[in-house]
TrEMBL record:
PANTHER family: DNA TOPOISOMERASE 4 SUBUNIT B (DUF810), PROTEIN UNC-13 HOMOLOG
Cross-referenced InterPro entries: Munc13_1, PATROL1_C, unc-13_homologue
Organism: Aegilops tauschii subsp. strangulata
Name of this protein: MHD1 domain-containing protein
A Pfam family per the record: TPR_PATROL1
Domain MHD1: 321-447
Length: 629
């Protein structure tokens, strides 16, 4: 437009500009650098912006976040502009790093972040002469960062901006990073350490957990980042737990413990391995802060005068979270976990609150199981449960509720001790003994079934051989005994025998399962002792019950086994007598006694006996079959 509108005067204007530019170029050099001109310092704002625009030509316009293949050639060509724009190698490295980082912030492409890292490493290797340093220092920029304002040269300003952006992300790395982009986290952490002129910040005085004496600036910075990030993540988890508690009808502390366990897993799997390279105590710091923050919230709840109905669940969730912390500490540092940070580890001492709650719960469960056992045994008809399971339904139900109690006992996530285990075993034994006592009371004496022996089979001197023989009449039994006999048929006796064998087998299974679960309990107790030893700097932990003492507890089951064996023997002695002297008395015994001697032969009754044996073999379990037969 200027050429068209002023066709005649442009030569004169350009001549004036050229003359003025020549005069400025002839001005004395301010820093004595080779090729230095007046425009280097007086127009550095424009020059640096223009060079940034030129640097943007290395980025691919079609593939966002990628460098063009000719990037190296473009950068080499751009060196031709250095004498005109007053760019030095150090300025180039700083401006190129800034351009790469800005592009990374837009795209999130890790390749650009790594290129930024390389450029800053090159920048740190520069050892410029005094004149070059003075020249760069003349480019003054006003900056605001870390709560203060100041002025820096252009290079330091670019590095500070990069550092501030990364620092802001890393102070809440749980929010911005995950296992998927952990490589970006590591590169950004390395970038912060490279670009930080003063690695510490003013936050350290207000830290929840301060650094130890003699810490390096690098470890201090990472310490601060870890604590700040976990505090931010904890705050978000606390807000989330409060919001979810109303929707899920759970206490916030239960949900908070669950949220924090996920954060601990994320910390230990994604971040701690990276942070450990620069600061070996990073994992310990993170776990200690998690433990301390939740402990403060739990302490406030326990100090309250009115504990909610969900106290048992809250204590279980808290204990589970503390076990998670202890397990992670042990896996990271083993027995050598003691350090100055141990002073901040205050065990929750859940057992002080949970022990009486567990005993109360066990007492209530025992009463429920006992009541259920009495009710179900009263209505038992001793019919087989199914074709394949020829035992009493009531016993299956009793063991079902017993197993539910055992599962709830060990899944409560509360600290357990030998007193609780003893109470559990006593409750199980009491219910089974009540069941067995009822079975025993249903039996009648075997002698009740035996007929009175005929006169001819008895000899005594007082017997008159010429007396008239009397017919043998069956004894008239009491109504109560008769009713019992009606319920003691051979099929029902077989079901009872199967049930007694089931009790013995199931008791062995339960004992083995409880012992295995108790091993896990002892492992948890060991972890809590490990945590306590760290805080007290002790070398030993509380002694746990020996295997012998645990085995002694289970001898209480032997009483149940002996009772079951005794009742089994009683029924085994009774079942044959019942079949022969009661069920087959008319067909077998009376016929043998009432008919003539010639017709009284056992072969006649073998088919009948075989029918009974077939019925028994169909009903009885294999273990008892031979004894019953």
């Amino acid at each position: 437009d200027w050429v068209v509108s002023v066709p005649d005067g442009r030569i004169e204007v350009l001549t004036i500009i050229e003359r003025y530019n020549t005069r400025l170029s002839a001005a004395p050099k301010k820093f004595g650098l080779k090729g230095e001109t007046y425009h280097w310092t007086q127009s550095y704002h424009f020059n640096s912006r223009l060079y940034e625009k030129l640097l943007s030509s290395v980025f691919d316009m079609l593939e966002d976040g990628q460098l063009v293949e000719e990037a190296d050639e473009i950068l080499e060509t751009m060196k031709l502009t250095w004498p005109i724009l007053g760019i030095t190698q150090k300025l180039h490295d700083a401006l190129y790093a800034w351009a790469l980082f800005q592009k990374f912030a837009q795209t999130g492409e890790i390749l650009l972040l790594k290129q930024t890292d390389l450029q800053i490493q090159k920048l740190k290797l520069h050892n410029n002469v005094r004149e070059a340093e003075l020249y760069i220092d003349s480019f003054v920029c006003s900056v605001e960062g870390f709560g203060s304002n100041g002025t820096l040269n252009l290079v330091d300003s670019a590095l500070l901006k990069i550092n501030m952006w990364c620092h802001r992300q890393l102070k809440n790395y749980h929010l911005y990073f995950s296992q998927a982009n952990c490589s970006i986290f590591e590169s950004m952490l390395n970038l912060v350490l490279l670009t930080a002129a003063n690695l510490t910040d003013d936050d350290e005085e207000a830290m929840l957990i301060g650094t130890s004496l003699g810490s390096t600036p690098e470890s201090t910075l990472i310490h601060i980042l870890v604590v700040r990030s976990i505090q931010a993540a904890y705050k978000n988890a606390l807000i989330s737990a409060d919001g979810q508690s109303k929707a899920e009808f759970k206490h916030p502390l239960i949900l908070l413990a669950s949220e924090l366990k996920l954060l601990v897993e994320k910390e230990c799997s994604a971040f701690s391995p990276v942070l450990h390279k620069y600061y070996p105590e990073a994992g310990r710091v993170a776990l200690t802060v998690f433990h301390l923050l939740y402990g403060q919230q739990l302490e406030l709840f326990l100090e309250g005068s009115d504990h909610s109905e969900s106290l048992k669940e809250i204590l279980g969730a808290s204990n589970s979270f503390e076990l998670c912390i202890a397990q992670k500490l042990y896996s990271m540092y083993g027995e050598a976990a003691g350090s100055s940070l141990s002073n901040f580890l205050k065990p929750y001492m859940i057992d002080r609150f949970s022990s009486p709650i567990i005993l109360q719960w066990l007492h209530a469960q025992h009463e429920n199981v006992l009541e259920w056992t009495k009710r179900t045994i009263e209505i038992e008809d001793w019919e087989p449960l199914s074709v394949h399971r020829k035992l009493a339904t009531s016993m299956v139900e009793v063991f079902r509720i017993v197993e539910e109690t055992i599962d709830q006992f060990f899944n409560s996530s509360l600290p357990l001790d030998i007193v609780h285990l003893r109470s559990l075993l006593i409750g199980i034994t009491s219910s089974l003994q009540v069941y067995l006592l009822h079975m025993e009371n249903q039996q009648v004496s075997r002698a009740t079934l035996l007929p009175v022996a005929p006169v001819l089979t008895r000899y005594a001197e007082s017997v008159n051989p010429f007396a008239k023989r009397k017919l043998i009449e069956p004894a008239v039994r009491e109504e109560k005994v008769a009713n019992k006999l009606n319920n003691l048929t051979v099929p029902k006796l077989c079901v009872k025998l199967n049930t007694l064998q089931y009790i013995r087998d199931q008791l062995d299974t339960i004992e083995e399962g409880i012992k295995q679960s108790w091993v896990d309990v002892q492992s948890a107790v060991g972890l809590l002792d490990y945590l306590s030893c760290m805080t007290s700097e002790g070398a030993t932990s509380k002694s746990s019950p020996s295997d012998e003492s645990i085995d002694e507890l289970f001898t209480i089951f032997d009483d149940v086994r002996r009772t079951a064996v005794n009742i089994t023997d009683t029924i085994l002695n009774f079942i044959g007598t019942r079949a022969v002297f009661w069920d087959m008395r008319d067909l077998l015994l009376f016929s043998l006694y009432r008919t003539s001697v010639e017709s009284a032969r056992m072969e006649i009754f073998i088919p009948t006996i075989e029918q009974v044996l077939d019925q028994v073999c169909d009903l009885i379990v294999d273990v008892l079959r031979d004894r019953v037969v």
